[in-house]
Design brief:
Blueprint lengths: L1 H14 L4 H21 L4 H12 L4 H23 L4 H7 L11 H6 L3 H13 L1 H4 L6 H20 L4 H13 L5 H18 L5 H7 L12 H4 L8 E2 L2 E2 L6
Antiparallel strand pairs: 1-2
InterPro entries: SapB_1 (IPR007856), SapB_2 (IPR008138), Saposin (IPR008373), Saposin-like (IPR011001), SaposinB_dom (IPR008139), Sphingo_Act-Surfact_Prot (IPR051428)
Keywords: Disulfide bond, Glycoprotein, Signal
Organism: Dictyostelium purpureum
């Protein structure tokens, strides 16, 4: 509470001279930071709303209604977005309270992505590869999942989706893998940022070999028959169709 009080004092120093929409945006940022702290403490929605009402009581009367409206209308959504690991700094933009900040496409980001940085990322990925590869029995399934995930990343990058949007979409894709959903989710969390940086010059098979989730081509005798044509897979209402050959 002390942290939020400090934020509010700083906020009130200039919010009274700003427009109503800017005031809403400023309050939203405060609420998001406050909610994030309580979600980490496993507080319930009811407990969080009660604490936020106390926060709104600290502000001046002419701003209290703005604070109350944000709390009543958006607390539940903000909690869900934080639980989904959305970036707190962009949540108020996502729920349309704050204006959108233009973001460069992933292709534009990759254009300035130097080779030294790419090597650094590959090195970090290889260090993390062993936990997911400790299951020899499932290695072919993990390789198949990796190629599907990588293919989806390639298509979504071509659609100029941001990294957070790609990860969010892939979380939904992973649910369709049933028994392998946990491995898929772990793969997305650990490897997607590196995959994004590697797709400029490599195909799904090569990328999955680079990050040690698929065996080298010369040891995969069935490679040509099992490869998916990721670049031309149909898209249905923004969702990628998935073919599982395992």
């Amino acid at each position: 509470m002390k942290f939020i009080a400090i934020l509010l004092i700083a906020l009130l120093g200039f919010v009274s001279t700003t427009s109503a929409s800017q005031a809403e945006c400023d309050f939203c940022d405060v609420v998001v930071n406050y909610v994030e702290g309580f979600v980490l403490k496993n507080k319930t929605q009811s407990e969080i709303e009660t604490e936020l009402e106390k926060v709104c009581n600290l502000v001046s009367p002419n701003l209290k209604s703005t604070c109350d409206n944000i709390v009543m209308a958006y607390t539940e959504t903000i909690i869900k977005l934080i639980i989904m690991k959305e970036n707190p700094s962009t949540i108020c933009q996502q729920i349309k309270i704050c204006p959108q900040t233009p973001q460069p496409s992933l292709y534009e980001q990759m254009a300035s992505f130097n080779q030294d940085k790419l090597k650094e990322i590959k090195g970090e990925v290889l260090k993390k590869a062993s936990p997911l590869l400790g299951r020899t029995r499932e290695s072919s399934d993990i390789c198949s999942i990796c190629k599907i995930v990588t293919g989806d990343v390639i298509v979504m990058v071509k659609q100029n989706k941001t990294e957070s949007e790609i990860i969010s979409d892939l979380d939904n894709v992973c649910k369709e893998f049933k028994v392998f959903a946990n491995q898929c989710t772990q793969m997305v969390e650990q490897y997607v940022p590196a995959i994004i940086g590697m797709i400029e010059s490599e195909d799904p098979q090569e990328i999955c070999q680079q990050i040690k989730l698929c065996p080298p081509s010369n040891s995969n005798h069935n490679n040509n028959n099992n490869n998916h044509n990721f670049y031309n897979r149909p898209i249905n209402k923004g969702r990628l169709s998935i073919t599982k050959n395992f």
